[in-house]
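Here is a protein:
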Amino acid sequence: MTLEFILRIFVAAILGGAIGLEREYREKAAGFRTHFLVALGSALFMIISAYGFEHALTSPEHRLDVSRIAAQVVTGIGFIGAGTIIFQKNTIRGLTTAAGVWVTAAIGLACGGGLYTLALASTLMVLLGLEAFNYWLRRIDSKRKKASHHKEEVTDSEE
């Protein structure tokens, strides 16, 4: 079982690192190392939650609730993510990074639970979403610049 657990944290770290590389490339606050560690740590917490206490519960009156630690990971990651959000001059920055850290924790939990296909599909969807979002923002920005430039030309010719 130990090799399976090592595989789970390894896959989580790789998938989280993939998301972190995209964030690093965009020069965001939480990059490769943060996402790598969040996914690995979440997977480890999930493994500990599901398997770490089964020997301590030897009597029938004790129950094991594997969802408790996972629920606390969600709360803890929310706290970390909140630290990446900055409100400055009527602009919010870091919200996508916070959401990325949050979903990376979920991917880590999925790997810790042995749900590799779900974790991989989620990672691909996150990367696709981040790239598609970036593509559309660039297109909107270039249209806005063209419109602004055209408006300046019209104003200059009227003078």
In short: Helices lie at 2-25, 32-51, 67-84, 95-112, 116-158. The chain has a mean pLDDT of 82. The first strand starts at residue 86 and ends at 88. The two ends are 78 Å apart (CA to CA).
